[in-house]
Amino acid sequence: MNIKKWQHAVHRLALDKGWYDGAIRTVDYDLHPLEIAGRLANVHGEVSEALECLRDSEMDTWHGPTGKPEGIGIELADAVIRIMDLCEAIGIDLEECMSIKHEYNETRSRRHGGKAL
After folding, report:
1. Cα–Cα distance between 111 and 88 in angstroms, integer?
2. Is 63 helix (H, G, I), strand (E, B) or coil?
3. Neighbours of 23 (CB within 10 A)
């Protein structure tokens, strides 16, 4: 499945599971900027959970007592899933944007001019 299809499937599941019930919308039914901001904060939360896994040396994937998958890779996957969902919700073609950015990155100098991080 390509990224565009994954993005659509992820968003469809989010809709089906009720994650957009009561979403704040503008007059023309687009997501309100505050709604988008909240969803971006959720992406940040998933990345923070990945950092916690790193701090706790939870590098492998395992299943918790309820069967829920855990570990740094799972948290990073959650971040990607949330990004895909949001992109689909607001009409961004993530696959195209990734391609554009990757092509640009290929033109940049090593470590973008000597950045340490």
Report:
1. 31
2. strand
3. 15
* Nearest-10 Cα torsion for 35, 36, 38, 41: 180
Domain ranges of the chain: 3-114
Proportion of the chain in helix, strand, coil states, percent, rounded to 5: 60, 5, 35
Do residues 55 and 91 lie in contact, with contact meaning Cβ atoms separated by under 8 Å?
no
**CB-based contacts of 103: which residues, under 8 Å, 6+ apart?**
none
- Structural contact between residues 57 and 45, judged by C-beta atoms closer than 8 angstroms: no
Report pTM: 0.91
Q: Which fold has domain 3-114?
A: Helix Hairpins (1.10.287)
One pLDDT digit (tens) per residue for the chain, 117 residues: 899 999 999 999 999 999 999 999 987 779 999 999 999 999 999 999 999 999 999 999 999 999 999 999 999 999 999 999 999 999 999 999 999 999 999 999 998 888 787
